[in-house]
Amino acid sequence: MTKNCEEIQMRFYESGDEGAKLLPVSFHEWEERARKTLAAGPFDYVYGAAGAGDTLRANLEAFQKYQIRPRMCCDITERDFSVTLFGKKIPLPILLAPIGVNSILHSDAELATARAAAKAGVPYILSNVSTRSMEEVAGVMGDALRWFQLYPPKNHELTKSFLKRAEAAGYSAIVITVDSTLLGWRERDLRNAYLPFLAGDGMGNYFSDPVFRSGLDEPPEQNMKAAVKKALSEGNNTHFTWKELDYIREQTSLPVLIKGITHPDDAILAVEHGVSGIIVSNHGGAAAGRGDRYSGCTAFRLRSGEGQRTCSDG
Ligand SMILES: Cc1cc2nc3c(=O)[nH]c(=O)nc-3n(C[C@H](O)[C@H](O)[C@H](O)COP(=O)(O)O)c2cc1C
After folding, report:
1. pLDDT for the residue numbered 296
2. Residue 45 CA: which ligand 1 atom is closest?
3. How much is the pLDDT for 307?
4. Per-residue pLDDT for 305 more than 60?
5. CB of 277 closer than 6 angstroms to any ligand 1 atom
6. Which of 156, 239, 273, 283 is catalytic?
7. Cβ neighbours of residue 279 under 8 Å, at least 6 residues apart?
8. Domain ranges of the chain
9. The dihedral of CA 189, 112, 153, 224: what is its sign?
């Protein structure tokens, strides 16, 4: 269950001198703790961005410009931040964005994130490139709300297999990420010569997939390098078009959202192609530079009906 702010604050105050050790209290402190705990490769993989980080910085600056002018003297004893998404009520208007390869950060990888999301009641969007498979993750979440994110593979049979598995494992929506069909030019990762997939991280869904495995000359347990290369090539789907999106929608009965839209015209096209929602995002500036995340939102709001949703991240 989500704790209210007072409960969390009181835990700090009532713990006296121990308070400071409980948890970091600011984003900056979390960042510093991660920097101390992790090796340069994993830290920079999460902290870094495309190019020299200009888009990441622009995202942060744009976010700082949002202002709230609150109204006073309202009874705020009962505060309700809940929203209903595709028929499910969630306590806060927040979802956990898909973040791949959690094994570079924690030995339980996505299981740890999934357990935390379930406990907090925050929906979890599991990445296609998770180290633990979608079935393992579902296994620790009980009935908690989860969506599956797909980097649409080139192979239609593999696409169908991922969708079928996600439905069977209780994921209730599909998020198609369309903004990273090619690896970004990431200066920190290049300097560290660090791409976690090459060590087999982030391959949980691929390596456990019967269709993927049947296309390999040798199983991943015998030739990991070849299996990883094949998976990366599937994900680098430069052929992806709106027609492919239509194909995916036809293969699943779940709501399909599109992630990575920033241009208003693309938002309109997405609606015309029947998406149930748009996640306006430039991948946190991590995949390609110079994407403007805000303009897509407005166009989608103008055109969308009641059944469609817009979310936004960096
Ligand atoms: C380490 C890392 C891994 C990510 N992995 C994925 C992924 O697998 N799939 C995806 O759609 N987005 C991925 N993203 C992008 C995030 O989902 C999100 O769009 C981005 O972090 C911007 O949101 P933020 O501003 O809240 O960080 C990743 C981002 C980071 C930093």
Report:
1. 44
2. 1
3. 56
4. no
5. no
6. 283
7. 175, 257, 258, 259, 260, 261, 310, 311, 312, 313
8. 83-312
9. positive
